[in-house]
Amino acid sequence: MADVYVVGAAQTKFGAFPDESYRTLFTEAFESAVESVDGEFDTDSIDEAYVGTLGVGGRQLGLSGPAVTEHAGLDGTTCTRVENACASSGTALRLAVLAIRAGVADVALAGGFEVMTDMSADRTRYWLGVSGETEWGRMSGMTFAGVYAHMAHAHMSEYGTTREQLSRVAVKNHANGAMNPNAHLGFECSLEDAVNSTSVADPLNLYDCCPTSDGASAVLLANEDVASSLTDKPVRITGTGQASDRVGLFQRQTLSSIPATRDAAEAAYDDAGIGPDDIEFAEVHDCFSIAEIMAYEDLGFCDRGEGGQYLESGATERHGERPVNLSGGLKSKGHPIGATGTGQVVEVFHQLRGEAGQRQVGNLSCGLTHSVGGSGGAVAVHVFEEGWA
Amino acid sequence: MADVYVVGAAQTKFGAFPDESYRTLFTEAFESAVESVDGEFDTDSIDEAYVGTLGVGGRQLGLSGPAVTEHAGLDGTTCTRVENACASSGTALRLAVLAIRAGVADVALAGGFEVMTDMSADRTRYWLGVSGETEWGRMSGMTFAGVYAHMAHAHMSEYGTTREQLSRVAVKNHANGAMNPNAHLGFECSLEDAVNSTSVADPLNLYDCCPTSDGASAVLLANEDVASSLTDKPVRITGTGQASDRVGLFQRQTLSSIPATRDAAEAAYDDAGIGPDDIEFAEVHDCFSIAEIMAYEDLGFCDRGEGGQYLESGATERHGERPVNLSGGLKSKGHPIGATGTGQVVEVFHQLRGEAGQRQVGNLSCGLTHSVGGSGGAVAVHVFEEGWA
């Protein structure tokens, strides 16, 4: 089975870009990814491309993968659009890994995009609703923030997680994002501001919610033969895991955990031959503050129910034992849905190579990305390690 | 690399089913596929599922893959939605093959669905338009029939392809579909009726166009270990190929050919270690009559420009040298977009096993499926052979 390496990774700035289209954003991310490769990268060498997008709004809905790769100059490159809601490009990454492992590609592209800020708030709420369960959930008036509000209520009630612990997710991630020039909301926030902000869906307030953003990201993968000709700072994908669960929260066994994260993480750890203790840092899917706290538990960073205390202990701060969301996460960096999964890889790639600039945290050798679709109907987890196989 | 076998395949009847939902249709196809397996098939053994759908209309748009697999009882099974327009489940099939080859799955499900008949003609035209190029093509008034009408004009002008040859595609495929109880338009048509029917987009008339349909299909794949425990009538996928091209027709080098079909076929033939002469029968993507004629040429069944004569020679009739669309094809069997690619596999599976009932054509050992997204922005080609590796 071919080993898979990340040889380049980049994202656009995430934010509101009324003068850009989904095509220009994807092209910008792709071209930056090509520039990030150490050696001379031939774009004609890309055998397969996987592009994640939810397809928010009224843009190209059929063939939206080939529609962006052609604009990036890859009109002859085999391309597939992948959609697993907010895990779309987390899933695209996995498919690119499988294409190389299966031997149909020596070099593969995984990426994603979304344009969300050109819609009214009502339209955005509609489109995000479709990432929840449509037939019963959304039709009964459930918003997407409402889905995670139910989870937060359950977690607070079962484990005593506090309002302040939720807000500390925002404070930490904004502190990280303030150092990231690509962040949508690249400013710090105080605990007081986070605790006291406007309610969105009780108990979640504005600072518990990530923004809706425009943006794109792209990751270039290669087998060892190609990677060794391009770089002497290898970053290897050693574990890939994906799992699904009921789409609608009302059909789950638990509201205070995302079982598909546990299953995907177990698969990724098995694949990599490691355990959660080996993960030194992670980019996790903090679409809402409670999501990051549940991720700590479901990824095995702490015991079930202890996510709030784990956060409060400082373990996941940038100088803690296991920094989480050094990029700022979805909360501060932004969440252009289809761009988010491969966007996480950008931070891991730079941190493992010691190239994260002012965000760099010492010498890191093993990181993880965690990408959640909807409220956990699909989850992709990947493990990255520094060095050759 | 693990060899990949088809151990089960089924589809719903294609047609207009106002009392069914996309979930009940998919479940019906999946359960029929399970029943089609020779041995006792454990649905818990499915490691990965890939589901193709364009997502026509206003249904579950995020996580529409997991939304149907959960309804089919596979709520714990890793699931990814794939969208390459009309090649969505042709692409899903390829991904399921890669998952087994890459070793992350021993057993995989590929399938697809679409519900199209609950929309007004105007909405259908809109949604089909999104499979063409949206920003310039559709916005300038191009319909999807219009896209293929341009191709037909070009082919007639460059190669002398005739009105009657186009109509003979319909006559042949309806004759086949009349023997298929799952066909949407399961009736025969005369050459006179086909030639003289109402114009849709000149030169294409009603009988040059496939219907819009509701339906679902599902294919169960397994590696050799599992397959050998389930059946002694093996059908192996020996070749997978996929390619892309510019989404918009106005950006192509040629209008009288689909280059992505040529590229995907070449990749599939290389993968299988065969050539077009080895293909005994095929299910090709005849969304419009001209598409089947171009497919003959692009798949290498005849020389460029000779598709019309090749058809007229009777070569692709059910008792010809290389029967094409024994199922009735998209033209007669119907075209529920996401269900079409894996729907083609159903016919190939039964023909290779000698179980196609009144449609069975002698002893066949090598067949092909050809799935086109849009006007060729993405194409998937697969080669199937009878017997163990």
TrEMBL record, chains A, B:
Entries under InterPro entries matching the protein = Thiolase, Thiolase-like, Thiolase_C_2, Thiolase_N
Top-rank taxon: Archaea
Q: Extract the Pfam families matched here.
A: Thiolase_C_1 (PF22691), Thiolase_N (PF00108)
Domain Thiolase N-terminal, which positions? 4-225
Keyword set includes Lyase: no
Q: Where is this region: Disordered?
A: 318-337
> For the Thiolase C-terminal domain, which residue ranges apply?
241-385
Molecular function GO terms recorded: acyltransferase activity, transferring groups other than amino-acyl groups
Q: Which GO terms describe its biological process?
A: isoprenoid biosynthetic process
Query: Which intervals of the chain form a coiled coil?
Result: none
Provide the alphabetized UniProt keywords: Isoprene biosynthesis
- The protein here is known as Thiolase domain-containing protein
